Amino acid sequence: MAQENSAAEAPQRSIAPAPIRAFGARRINLEMRARLDEADKFTGLPRGTAKPYTFLAAFEQAEPYLGLPAQAAKLVAWLVRQTMPQDWEEGSRPIAAPRAELQAEFLGGMSLRAVQMLNRRLWEAGILVIRDDPQGRRYKFRDKTTGRLTKAFGFDLSPLALRHEEFKKIAVDAQIERNRMSQLRRRASLARRGINQAVEELGVQGCDSEPLRQLHRETGELVIAARQCRRSNELEVAVKALERRRSEAEQMLRDLIKPVETASMGEGNNAHSTTTTLTSNHINDTVIASERSSRSGVQRPEPKTPSPSKLTHLFPETLHITPAILVELAPRLAPYMPARTSDKDWPAIVEAALFLSGEMGVNRTLWARACDVMGREYAAVALALVSTRPAEHFTSGPGGYFAGMLRKFEKNPQDLCLSRTLWARKNEVWGEEGHKQRRRIEQQRRIEMRTTKSTHPDLQPANEIRAPLPARSSAASFVPVGSALPQPATAWPVPPAPPRASLISPPADRVTASPKNWKPSEELREIEQRINAMLANPKKDSKAEPGCETPRNDRKS
């Protein structure tokens, strides 16, 4: 009609068809229609097996990775709590029918339009579907006897049950992704700190080249890029680049190390040798040990096995450790220890710890600081314990871990407490039963050492008389030419002391086997008679006259 009344020269337009809309009904797109068809496939669970909170837990674990709005998880949990287990069983449907106003109130005063948009987003994401009655209302009725729904319109939550396994797989994959991201971030931190440590040491050594400055700039850019990565595959690329830069920085540091000269000493390449044979000009200038010292019966103390250290000048605490046991507990010290067992002492442990610190990447300045503050032996024990830890134990590398131990010691030496760490390490290496057995053996050895040495000299066992040592022609004692060598005397044990003899021994012919049959001799009887006579008749001078009183010291005569 409009075209017929228009002018002939006016341009004619094609009239676009108006969109078909059902007034008074909800607008549903194709994606929402597909979700509704999927929900219709839910026929219910067997009787007595419905657990709606299991479906809710799987959804909540996967929700951070579904890209839903902020209030989605809160709303879905609230809707699930409005259903009953029998609603999820066969012959029924899990439907919740809250009004829009009640939803807005529960979600913290959200507007009705925002509530409608949230419901639509959940439908499009396949979390729920909306089933309205012909008038667009939501309600439900239950049978009072069985408690089952007889008629219900509202939010159908059956997609939660249909996608239960999918949600569980999403949660597992997300956990794997988080673990991988955590490992990659740890590797990135280790690489960054290793580069900073190497660059700092190169600066101390006076190395300031253009490749070093370029490496430092690239490291800063890679660190910024790594922090912006949200996927493990993206972060892995940045981490590998950082690790390559760390290898380059460490190689620059190794190039500064001067090689150790291994050429033999002496003129040219001749073998180094020292002559120990004395010449005739110096043979009379030696010192001979005195005969008194050679003949003395004093025994030289035999070397004893080093006991567990309780010396306060070595450690600030009691560690109950020997060098040999420390090497056993920390095997990484063994390649740097001397071959002979007798040479395994604390100076050798300190030297081995110095080489081990270089292998572990501990800064030489840090090691020197630890030796100055903690003491060389205590710092060696601490570094040996650090070497027993696996690589994944450290977050900042062995050097950062050792630096943390040093800071703790500087703050309060009692907080470090290496004795507890050594105790746990002994249980780990020897086992609890083996550790107990070793402690019993050590305790028995200490008891024996205390009981074998008495404080009273008479209770000491008789020392065996040793023959004087023959003169030796060693570096410590020489004998002049022409002197007679002393011959060693025969060593005999000390004979027992004879019993004390009596005053007058009886004649040999009167001695019998039994002491009861012995009789005194004539001489003994005469002596006895003389003594008795002297006691019976005292001297006349000693007698006082009758009537005379002997004066006393306290009275005048």
Account of the 3D structure:
The protein has 557 residues and is mostly helical. The chain is built from 19 helices and four strands. The protein has helices at residues 2-5, 30-39, 52-62, 72-81, 100-106, 112-124, 158-162, 164-204, 210-227, 232-255, 291-295, 323-329, 346-360, 364-374, 376-387, 397-411, 413-416, 418-451, 522-536, and strands spanning 95-96, 129-131, 139-142, 149-156. Strands 1, 2, 3 and 4 form a four-stranded antiparallel beta sheet that branches. The relative contact order is 0.05. The N terminus and C terminus are likely disordered.
Descriptive key words:
mainly alpha; 19 helices; elongated; 557 residues; 4-stranded antiparallel sheet
Characterize this entry briefly:
With 557 residues, the protein is mostly helical. It contains 19 helices and four strands. Helix 3 packs parallel to helix 8, helix 5 crosses helix 6 and helix 8 runs parallel beside helix 10.
| Mean pLDDT across all amino acids | 76
- Ends apart, CA distance between termini: 186 Å
Number of helices: 19
Question: Any idea what the radius of gyration is?
Answer: 52 Å
Question: Biggest sheet: strands, sense, closure?
Answer: 4 strands, antiparallel
Strand content: under 5%
Number of strands: 4
Q: Give the topology string: H per helix, E per strand.
A: HHHHEHHEEEHHHHHHHHHHHHH
Oligomeric nature of the chains: single chain
- Unreliable segments of 5+ consecutive residues: 1-16, 262-298, 300-312, 454-459, 461-465, 469-479, 490-494, 501-505, 510-514, 540-557
Structural class: mainly alpha
Shape: elongated
> Helix content range of the residues, please?
40-55%
